[in-house]
Amino acid sequence: MKKPLLITLIILAVLLLIPAVSFIRWAFQEKKPIDVVILDKTVPTLDRMGHRSFIYVMTNGRFVKGEKGGSYSAAKDYYGFVPLRPVREKQFKKTDFRLTELIELAENNDALYYADTYGVFFNDWYQGIKKARRSRKLYGGLNNNDYLLMSEMKKRDKLVLVEYNTFDYPTAGLERFKTEELLGISSTGWMGQYYSRLDTISSDGAPGWMPALYRKQYREPWTFTKSGVVLLKENSIIVLEEGSHLASALPLIVTSETYAGQFNVPQEVAFTNSFDIIDAGQNSVVSEFVLKTTPAGDSLLADNSLKAVFPAVTLEPLVQRTFYFSGDFANNDVPCWTARFKNFQKGGKALLYSDNENDPRRFFWLFYKPLITKIFTDYQAGATGK
Asked: Which of 45, 182, 192, 342 could form a disulfide linkage to 231, CB 3.0–4.6 angstroms apart?
């Protein structure tokens, strides 16, 4: 055999051996049984982006369903809005918590994860129709049964994780009030989003309905073109543009050295998904959102009773089993085929994210994945050790 051919075959063998060994190492990890109730009401497509990355973390960490012992499925193991095949027929079903099964669910499950309660609206489901800020709701909002299950889980000191937009539209006022009281959190009603371009022409720019809302409030034209952050509350809008109001447009999640060490997360990471602004009350603040505002940006926020720093992750301080994530944390585009490889992040890092601190992909791999893994590892170890 010629030497170049032999070298090529050796290289190919090594390339095939590495993922094989990684898969075997994953498969032979000790399984961690934990029963989780997952709720995602915002599933307008079959990719199930709103909770898929959470399923990735559970699968990769070898967290399995308690009785059955199998891995969690993004397509099957959740409550909420369920699109049906074929997608072109636009059929769907809704799987909700029934009042009669709430006690049984709370007794038989270890954890609760409300990934997204916003819902699906007419313009989300029927693609191609002219977009507006809001259209007719097909399904969504946190309801009374959702609240009651959360309450029952907390009474039993189970693990409860709740995400962004739980309190706000389209959740009704009564459910919002009860949930805020249950979690000890107050919502300001303000929600925000980073845009790489604030013009409305670019595919990744601001939505086309924003300029009209801005003109109505400020009696000025929409002239923003750079990157920035837009904050919304009912019919109010604040635009923070890089250069004028922001020294750097990307919002940051900043974690103290103590909590960073406890949850295996970096002290600073960029975040590009949606977020809401809350008052943490008596909850411990694990991480904070930081907007790098200029003096002009600070003044604009102060005019609306807002600050450039606000909670990103809060933790109930007594039992320490209830978390609130003030951002759309679980909405990440991850390569699901890598979930069954152990330590793929180390060997295949170049395929996943870069060393650029502004790379938005870093949030999942450096913050969300280790955070969720640590929370569930600690809880599962404590539950099985009782």
From this structure: 192
Whether residue 168 is found in the same domain as residue 36: yes
Q: For the ranges 20-24, 193-197, 243-247, 316-320, which has the lowest average pLDDT? A: 20-24
Q: How confident is the model at residue 125, as a pLDDT?
A: 85
Please give, one letter per residue, the 3-state secondary structure of the chain: CCHHHHHHHHHHHHHHHHHHHHHHHHHCCCCEECCEEEEECCCCCCCCHHHHHHHHHHHHCCEECCCCCCECCCCCCCEEEEECCCHHHCCEEEECCCHHHHHHHHHHCCEEEEEECCCEEHHHHCCCCCCCCCCCEEECCCCHHHHHHHHHHHHCCCEEEEECCCCCCCCCHHHHHHHHHHHCCEEEEEEEEEECCCCCCCCCCCCCCHHHHHHHHHCCCCCCCCCEEEEEECCEEEEEEECCCEEEEEEEEEECHHHHHHHCCCCEEECCCCEEEEECCCCEEEEEEEEEECHHHHHHHHCCCCCCEEEEEEECCCCCCEEEECECCCCCCCCHHHCCCCCHHHHCHHHHCCCCCCCCCHHHHHHHHHHHHHHHHHHHHHHHCC
Residue 164 sits in the same domain as residue 217: no
Q: What is the pLDDT of residues 146-188, one digit of tens each?
A: 999 999 999 999 999 999 989 989 999 999 999 999 999 999 9
